[in-house]
Amino acid sequence: MVSTIIYLDFLISRLIKNHFEINSKKYVLSSSFNLFYKFKSNYLDTNMTYILGLCTMDTSSAALLKDGKVIAAVEEERLSRIKNDGSFPHLAITEVLSIENIKLQDVSEIAIYWKPWRVFTRGLGTVKKLLVSTNSRKGIQPRLEELFFNNEKSMNGSWSDLFRIKKILRTQHGKFNCRIKFWDHHHTHQMYGEAMKDWKVYASLSYDGGGEDFSTIVSIVKYGKREVLTRHKWPNSLGHFYSTFTGFLGFKMLEGEYKMMGLAPYGDPKYKDLILDKVIKLLPNGNYKLDTELCDYHAALRGFFSNELMELFGAPRKDVNKPTQKHIDIASSVQSAFEETLIHILQPVSIKFPEINKLVICGGCALNVTANGKLLTSTKFKEIIIPPAPNDAGCAIGAALCSDTNSPDFESLRSPYQGRKYSNEDIQTAIEKGQGLIFDQVSDYDLIERTAEILASGKLVAWFQGRSEFGPRALGARSFLADPRSDAIRDEINVKIKKRELFRPFAPSVTEEKAADYFCLNQNSPYMNIVANVLSGDIPAVTHTDTTARVHTVSAQSNPKYYSLLKRFGEITNVPVLLNTSFNIQEPIVYSPDDAINTFINSGVDFLVIENFIISRAV
Q1: 458 phi/psi in degrees, rounded to 5
Q2: The model's pTM
């Protein structure tokens, strides 16, 4: 407890010593983009041109907006090549500024995705955990050191970075004089997510491990007016619940959650009632209570689990051991309990606003695509939207939106393709660096024709086109592609490329107009964030054991070249669907032509297609 108080005292003292330019006006932020930006234009400085948005911890990132338009947004991991890099995003800052050919001194305002001085809720929750749990003391102190103090052992940015951000930025990026503003974490999530649609009336959910004070926020937006319906205080966190069990089942926390989600359909949710009785209890009015002593997230990060948890579910799995049927059943039960809790959280919307049937979902938990699909089949919501980067990386764009006084450019905001566009010269230089490669440079027509024929013949293709995706999904810009008609292709991909657990499914891309022929989904899924039942037996390679798939619908407007490839493949095979998995091998998704060449050389993929270059290995 004493160490925690010292840390809190450190934060407060640093806050006093640093000069933040915080607007003293008291106002309530409106979620309506029209009213929100009109208000800011009337009362705040409207001379801003460039806004730099930053996420500085966890999945760190940078985004650059100019006059309401997204110029670029990049995650640090794509450039550092360190998976889930949470260090201060110096590389990403340099990249987005370079794409626009400006320097930090040209930026009008820097927008941060977190208000670091709001420490009371987390401080109090931490003290309580320290008082009651030995495991908490083992887990929290190292975590506090990571968050509050940069150290060489940690790859993550620290909370204290936000108190000395001017110094950090000036040291790496030169002098600048612009303002720095700090925004509420969940509000940055919601601003980004809500920009995806032109809805007038909707519910908005942001939920993750936790923000400054809350882990979950449910809001109602009606014609520009926002009402916060429910708030769930940290450490009650559905994200921490899911991540703790991810670690318990032997997967890496904050990275392997999708593995547990992929494992769940193979099991029986026989422990769901036990979980909802002992671990996470559902309370009236959409509330819930997580037993943080039994389900201790911070201790789990260090590999410590409570005796009570082990009495209920047995010993934790070691990552070197194959999951037993009991482990698989626990995964199924955790997923089922997560879904039931999510539906419970949203019940106040149905009760108080029965007319609302549209839902925006953001925050790291929005990456639970199975739960997203369940909302469409088990609640009154008829349409949902999840942005391309619902995790903290997307908060860089959300924070920039909060600061920008211009009307948003929705076309750029809704595009998932936010990285650098590479020239033919860049590509040829990268090819020349590779050894034993041959290539043809072809027309657009021949590129689509030849690639479709290669895929239809059963070959594997690495596909690199245009600007890279922002967010964790490969959406036809940096993808490995294959024919989904053969179930055997899954094993071949795992042997030649991915080298991953066989229980993890591969996702399909489908032309937007043909999606309903193959999937039970009454809406588009442009960012691959919704699971739906598969209707056709023609695509076994992308059909999971529970006959579902994580669907990616592609329109001619969103990605013309990839759409053309899907359409031509459909003309050849009568199946306008491709197996689409991320272009990487145990690393972040490739970003540059150099990354693509290196990964291609180290894979068993047959062809690499970069822009209009078709590349293969010399015989």
Answers
A1: 95, 5
A2: 0.90
